[in-house]
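B., you asked whether I could sanity-check this one before it goes into the benchmark set. Here's the sequence:
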Amino acid sequence: MLTHKLLGVIFDLDNTLVSSSLNFDKIRSDLGCPKDIDLLDFVDTLPQKQKIDAHKLLVKYEMTDAHSATKLAGTDVLLTLLSELEIPCAIVTRNCNQAALLKIQQNSINIPTVLTREDHKAKPAPDALLDVAKKWNTPPENLLYVGDYLYDLQAAQNANTMSCLITYGKKMSYADLATIEVHNLTELSRTIEQLCIVEDA
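And here's what the prediction gave me:
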C-alpha cells in the first residue's frame, strides 16, 4: 500500500512503458567498462576524446533500440486512468534525449514532461525527480516513481518519493526497497483504482 496520498506519477521508460533490447554486456565490452562500475559514471571518467567517442557509441546503441521499441501492455489503460483521476505524469529516464523522444513519439505516449540524462544527473541521483516535484509544486513524498530496476528504487529513495517496482513475475533481490511491488502495469492500474475508491469512500 502507498504510504502517502498519490498526487503524481513519474515513470521510468525502458521496460516500464516501452520494450528495450539494449545489450548492456556488449556495450560494456565495447567501451571497456568493468562490470562493477556504472556505465554512465565510467564514460564520464574517460579523457575528453574517448568520452566523446563513447557518448556517440552509446547514442548509436540507444537509437537502434529506440527504432524497435514497442509499447508495453497496460500502458494506455494506466495513462487513461491517471488522466481521468487528474493525476499528472512525467518520464525520467537514463536514455539520451533523442532516443527517449523517438520511443515516446512512435508509441504515441502522451506524457509531455520528459527528463533524460542530458537534463540532470542520471539515476540513482534524485535530481530529475526533485525537479518534477518542484515543477508540479508537490511534496516528493506524494509522488510515485515507477520502474523495473534497482536504480529506479534508489532514485526514489534518494528523492524521498514513493516507489513501485514492476517485476514481470521475477524475484528481485532489491524488491524490499520498493513501496509497492506489481507484476505489470495492469496490476498497477488496479492498485491505483482501488486506492482511489478507498480515498473517496
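One thing to flag: The mean pLDDT is 94. Otherwise nothing jumped out at me.
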